[in-house]
Protein 1
Amino acid sequence: MEQTFIMIKPDGVQRGLIGEIISRFEKKGFTLKGLKLVSVDQSFAEKHYADLSAKPFFAGLVEYIVSGPVVAMVWDGKDVVKTGRTIIGATNPSASAPGTIRGDYAIDIGRNVIHGSDSVESARKEIALWFPEGIAEWQSSLHSWIY
Ligand code: RTP
């Protein structure tokens, strides 16, 4: 099965969206394999977003990510990277369809509530960065009802 890294950003945590977001991934049928509430420092946030270091919004993005606790998660399932991005919606909430997380709960690109890995390879790197201690090994008993 494929895995993805999902992070509820500080605005999502402060706005009380943790339960709603987890619920959407759970109801879809994906399996939660890692979960923690953490505050990260500037160098960790810069490492997570290293690919965007040349962007003009990089400093503001890092400041946003360190502004409060985030929820770091690993979700597992068939095509979860791509489907996770579909559940999340487009980067800019104004282009996100209603029914997506950003389409329903965000307005501004700089406060777009959630992150999801954009490829299987980035997921692998991000899971290693955020969960160096490893993640849970378990299989939901509903597996045969989902696949
Ligand atoms: P994410 O990595 O957070 O899931 O977002 P993404 O793949 O949809 O978008 P990406 O281009 O990787 O950008 C990462 C995050 O940077 C912020 N951003 N701000 N001010 C701006 O123009 C701008 N553009 C991007 C967003 O928080 C975006 O999610």
Protein 2
Amino acid sequence: LVRLRQRLAGAQGGFGRGLLALLSRERLDEDTWESIEDTLLTADVGVAPTQELVDRLRTRLRVGGAEAQDPREVLREELVALVGPDLDRRLQISGADGHPGVVLVVGVNGTGKTTTVGKLARILVAEDKSVVLGAADTFRAAAVEQLATWGERVGVEVVRGAEGGDPASVAFDAVREGDERGVDTVIVDTAGRLQNKAGLMDELGKVKRVIEKVAPVTEVLLVLDATTGQNGLIQARVFAEVVDVTGIVLTKLDGSAKGGIVVAVQRELGVPVKLVGLGEGPDDLAPFEPRAFVDALLG
Ligand code: GDP
């Protein structure tokens, strides 16, 4: 965890540290407040949250205010409040009535879906949970192979179908297999073709319906690439409209100065960020913790 924090700090320091440098100026004049706004917008915090934060900072750090305030402490408190310290970020990985928990992982191709499925399996296995993976991204042979490799690496079974086969039938087979074996959790990788909303809705809707003939879906994780900014947000909205997303996985935070997307996407979808991807390695997935995240931002 310490290592992950360091990585986040290394990549993310820019935006938090930049803000702090601006707020620590002797005179907080209009130019400075404009620079603060620019810094927040560039980091993808979003227009409304940026305005709210700047208003609160202006009030609390007003020149000649009642008491001298430590800008670092004020910024820290306000950033934590913005990120939502009280949202329920627990993953629903357990099922009820003897069924496994079923985690459906959705998102646009290339965002890091398959990698996230592999890393999540690894975390669960490390917690002594039994896991089955479903390779329902049948449209890309490479995705199925990639998941199979993760399965071998982590030591979990991967249920796969014929190439170009029906994703829903693979998802069904995976959940039935997990159900029969009595495992704790089945994680299903899905196809992320954004052909059109109706097509996506048909496909994901069918995957979910078919799975639920065996066991309820307990968690729907939407994977979002932090480096894609506003474009990624638009795509995220489309997914959220077709399936009930219960958590967000924000990947590639390591390579991005745009950590503010955490705030923007939670506002946009009304769903908490539950996990963050901090690299390509097997251990580079971590639960999202608002306070640790803000501390890392501030360096
Ligand atoms: P999918 O098409 O959504 O299943 O995406 P993949 O899982 O194949 O990932 C696409 C690329 O992003 C791969 O090269 C991954 O190694 C890389 N990737 C995934 N997550 C992260 C992350 O958190 N950080 C970085 N730097 N790369 C990542």
Protein 3
Amino acid sequence: GKGEYDHFMLKEINEQPTSLAQAIEGRIDPANGRIALSDFEPGTFEGIDSVQFVACGTSYHAALYGSLTLNQAGVRSSALLANEYSVSAPPVDDETLVIAVTQSGETADTLNALRQANAEGAQTLTVTNVVGSTAAREADDALFIRAGPEIGVAATKTFSSQAVMLTLLGQRIASDQRGEPRADTESLLAELASMPGAIADVLDDSDAAAIARRYADSQAYFFIGRGLGFPVALEGALKFKEITYEHAEGFASGELKHGPLALVTPETPVFAIFTGEEDEKTLKNAEEAQTRGAPVIAVCPDDHPAVEAADDHLEIADTDQDLAGLLANVQLQLVSYYAADLLDRPIDKPRNLAKSVTVE
Ligand code: F6R
């Protein structure tokens, strides 16, 4: 049941310290900087030349997150919408690893892409929450995120577990390829081990409810981020539109000036996510919106220059740039939740949506 919570969504948001701890349990060894993905023998990914992620919706945002961490680790990779894969997949061969990211393991679009990749001779892997799901049965390998059942239609805890597992997996692929781990693996793993606590801190002391109240009745809600902040901006907007039914859009920070700025008014709050990746540029982009009257809500650490410049602030711990976006995402999940609650929306079962989408 929902226990002390009004909605499963809020319960599942609050479960993230636990679900993340479960995801990484036994899979990292911060003491000696090793990624003990016991699911895979060392060297499993030695022969992989490039990686394609296929996924839909929130899982696509996690896939994009994973793909960007892989690119940053020097491995060729791309994130593709599974529903577009049949018409526009890049070529694959037996050195291509196709990773289907799907919480349920039953999404028709994602299964179709996985089947196509299998038929074309790629190596395949699924990152899923459901043991025994179709994706787990049909992919060559499976990596389980161990998030526990997710009842709310809007995916929350599964997103953070997917993103973390993809970050870990990416480090393994990169180190298998190179024959040695990235120089800063040890510090990344130490930060990762502290993520459950950092998420608990966000949950204990978030101003998200006040921010949701302050900006209720806005015309539209924009989310911007750069690097790993970009998939988080997309996810922040998807969550917001799904459960509030308000207009929300996520943009790469630098894209704002290439068109979307025309939409910006004093009635369009802009949530700006700072991950430590060229933050000064993101701050400039946010200030361009502010100049047009839009309130800016900075999602960043307390001592960040954006705090001073912005109208409001949602705090996250100062962490590795591979992980900062995940803390920001928890703040944005809470903003969406409280905004939807103020509007009295049926949060766990938004109109027109289903938890598992088994049609094309
Ligand atoms: C959004 C949401 C959907 C799913 C998408 C893929 O909150 O839940 O966008 O992420 O339908 O579902 P899975 O991960 O089961 O393949």
